[in-house]
Amino acid sequence: MKAERVKELAIIANRVRKNVLTGVYNAKCGHPGGSLSITDVLTVLYFDEMNIDPKNPKDPKRDRFVLSKGHCAPALYGVLAERGYFDPAELVNLRKFGHFLQGHPEMKGVPGVDMSTGSLGQGVAAACGMAKAAKIDGSDYRVYAALGDGEIEEGQVWESAMFAAHHQLDNLTIFIDNNNLQIDGDIRTVMNPHPIDEKYKAFGFHVICIDGHDYAAIADAIAEAKTVKGKPTAVICSTVKGKGVSFMENNYGWHGKAPNADEYAQAMADLEAIDKELGVL
Amino acid sequence: MAELKPIATRLAFGEELAEIGSREDIVVLDADLSKSTMTYIFKEKYPERFVNCGIAEGNMMTTAAGIASTGKRVFAASFAMFSSGRAYEQLRNSVAYPELNVCAVGSHAGLTVGEDGASHQCIEDVALMRAMPNMTVISPADGTETRAALRAIVDYQGPVYLRVCRLAMPILFDPDEYGKFEIGKGRILKEGSDIAIIGSGLLLHEAVKAAEALEAAGISVRLVDIATIKPLDEALVIESAKKCGAVLVCEEHNVIGGLGGAVAETLSKNCPTIMDIIGVKDTFGCSGEPMQLLDKYEMSAPHIEKAAKALIAKK
Fold first, then answer.
1. B66·A137 Cβ contact <8 A
2. Residues facing residue A143 across a β-bridge
């Protein structure tokens, strides 16, 4: 990926991060930490990779994405708004009564959401269903899913992993957002899922380990996954929870908490500093 | 009606599914029980649209949701215990909430699984599925009704729970006369005025026998078949209650939360009527032959007859 494109994606991702914070701040609740750690993967998928058309969000031939870690809806909504599925001005209505941006992704009401999620552990199974349907139909669309590293403590994640490999779903690529934090603390103290890469290898996946904030690496991993035949790909993304906001980074306290007015101002100042570095302001 | 062989509703389901299976939007999922749920008949005819999900029923239901999201009509089958119980939350959040066209099939429902015992005798599936928003609950009584129901389900928009049973039972409905299955509509099998007996699924057969015995004893029975438990045919239930003044519900399910609960909810709001429920009295079953079990748990025809007489005496 050319440096220019990396910069373009970084600028978009920073807008998405602002969307995350604005949504959660206005909702006075929500999940900023994991939203900020998965933002870069979503940005590459929606702006660099997926075959999608915001004007035709139900196109049967489109690529699909399932946010298995559904509590990170602020990031998904943030990227969908930037991509033109709906007006970014709607983001201040996240989680609010009478508005369409439900607390967790909702496919009936939110343009661009391919599967309703929120109950952890199910997204990859839904993605497997889509990928299997593509195989049945001989369609060449691709299916992506993102799940949390704490989420993979759910048993169904491994049932779906077995399914994906058994049915040779090489049109499926999943991203594990390995920020090493879950609600109750470090994943290694709550219920250690490591070694994540070895587990997915043993389940029959092609495994790629990357820095989940490196746009070129994310794009390269997606490109590599496309060349793999007969097996699904798992991209283990080493990430920072709360990425981009100084006081949220690597702090599990920001898993599911909204910033107050001062904290919001500080967070937006942090992101504006990134914009300055990128030459946006 | 020509003499038709007894058939289990699960087998009628499997045969009919293969019959309508030429429709290319149909995809069938099973969790390693295709020879029991009878989806193997479809699998042999259309292997490219059959997906074995292995012994992972919850995962099967979410996978079904993903397939359905691409515009297909998915039938996902396992034993009722696992389709409704193990996979409850997957059905709720991935199928019912987004209103996807998935028919979760719960086979081997009720006590009449028999010898497998309590672990496999699902007597709470109707309660679970009925309490789930957007979920339609269908419990056909015989082979004819199962086939007709399936032909209705395949064109229905939204999630369905279809309850079928293991045991071969006689044909109650002449296929030439049954006509179309209307989701949400019950049927009057026999007119009567002393008591309304409302049956569903396998226990409708016992209700039929009980009604015959009651008629022989001079008691006039209105016999009603409710195959769609949700949405309930409230008009028919209310009309039956008004006409007879006593209602006896018969179902192969816990007396809590099933068709009896649905009828009680409707009548208490619209037309309070003395009623009783024949079903499993909030206890686990045990191993045994199906009919032994219906006797032990006081659900066979003689028990229905006795309960009907007791109910009439209270009028």
1. no
2. A64, A172
Range of the domain at A93: 3-278
B18 and B165 in a single domain? The answer is yes
Q: Please report the pLDDT score of residue A281 as a whole number.
A: 65
Of B213, B176, B169, B221, whose CA–CA distance to B195 is shortest?
B221
Domain count, chain B: 2
This complex has an ipTM of 0.96
Q: Tell me the Ramachandran region of residue B218: left when phi exceeds 0, alpha when psi lies from -120 to 50, beta otherwise.
A: left
Which residue in the set A108, A126, A136 is minimally distant from B62, CB to CB? Answer: A126
Question: Is pLDDT of B1 > 90?
Answer: no
How many angstroms away from the CA of B66 is the closest CA of chain A? Answer: 4
Q: Evaluate the CA torsion angle A164, A165, A171, A175 in order and state its sign.
A: positive
pTM, to two decimals = 0.97
Asked if B58 has any chain A CB less than 8 Å from its own CB, the reply is yes
Residue B141: closest CA among B92, B197, B100: B197
Range of the structural domain that residue B73 is part of: 7-169
Decide if B175 is inside a domain: no
Question: Which segments within chain A are labelled E, that is strand?
Answer: 64-67, 143-148, 172-178, 181-182, 185-186, 206-211, 233-238
- Per CB-CB distance under 8 Å, the chain A contacts of B97 are 106, 116
Question: How many separate domains does chain A show?
Answer: 1
Confidence class for position B55, pLDDT limits 50, 70, 90 = very high
Told to judge if B57 belongs to the known catalytic residues of this protein, a careful annotator would answer yes
Q: Of B57, B124, B251, B305, which one is the catalytic site residue? A: B57
Question: Which tokens hold the place of B24?
Answer: 């290319």
Interface contacts A/B by beta carbons within 8 Å: 94
Query: For residue A179, what is the domain's CATH number?
Result: 3.40.50.970
CA distance A41 to chain B (A): 22
**B-chain residue closest to A110, CA distance:** B98
pLDDT at B2: 66
B302–chain A Cβ distance below 8 A for any pair: no
